[in-house]
Write a structure and sequence with these properties.
The structure is a single chain. Strands 5-6-4-3-8-7 form a six-stranded antiparallel β-sheet. Strands 1-2 form a two-stranded antiparallel ribbon. 41% of the residues lie in helices and 20% in strands. Helix 2 packs across helix 7. It is built from seven helices and eight strands, in the order H-E-E-H-E-E-H-H-E-E-H-E-E-H-H.
């Protein structure tokens, strides 16, 4: 009987150890299969796209509705997005809807942020495209401390105001482990940040 218990304990420890390693891995697929719309959401083809997009979304300069005023406009992608959690569940939908609104030309989105472009749907009014992905935006909130602001039907989502890019890069390094070097992580993040 003791031998069986010992083996069970070993199996439990092995499974727990493997689980801890598995949760460090970066998820590249944030799509959901909706019976009505099919497979929708953000899917990254590789780590470079994931990290570059994270760098882009981490720079407050890209947000059209930024809670701070920047006295500079540096690149085409300045003021090009907003991110929201919409209270669709209040209207009877199954859940809140998390969206990125994109306000500039789609061809630029396609050339620089392919994963966002591939996940887009038509926008309305001055919104060129809407990118729906509850799981990805919740991932940004939960794993990278993006902030949800407001109490209205539509809440804004922003990167942390005093963003610590080193903390994000360290989190990425720990999640990615040895798949790519830290220099490659930094380069991909900066490629997105500097858009």
């Amino acid at each position: 009987m003791l031998l069986v218990w010992y083996k069970f304990r070993d199996i439990k420890n092995i499974l727990l150890s493997n689980f801890k390693e598995m949760i460090k891995i970066v998820n590249l697929d944030y799509r959901t299969n909706n019976p009505r719309w099919g497979l929708k959401g953000i899917h990254f083809n590789n780590l470079y796209e994931y990290i570059k997009t994270l760098g882009f979304l981490s720079n407050i300069r890209h947000y059209i509705n930024a809670p701070i005023t920047l006295n500079q406009s540096v690149t085409y992608f300045d003021n090009s997005i907003s991110m929201h959690v919409e209270g669709n569940n209040i209207d009877g939908a199954w859940n809140e809807e998390c969206r990125i609104h994109y306000y500039k030309e789609d061809n630029q989105l396609n050339s620089k942020l392919v994963s966002l472009y591939n996940a887009k749907s038509a926008g309305v009014g001055n919104i060129t495209s809407r990118i729906n992905s509850n799981s990805y935006i919740n991932h940004l909130i939960n794993d990278y401390n993006f902030i949800v602001q407001g109490n209205n039907y539509v809440k804004d989502v922003f990167p942390p105001i005093n963003i610590n890019t080193n903390a994000i890069l360290t989190t990425l390094k720990n999640k990615i482990k040895d798949e790519i070097s830290f220099d490659e992580i930094q380069k991909a993040f900066c490629d997105g940040w500097n858009l």
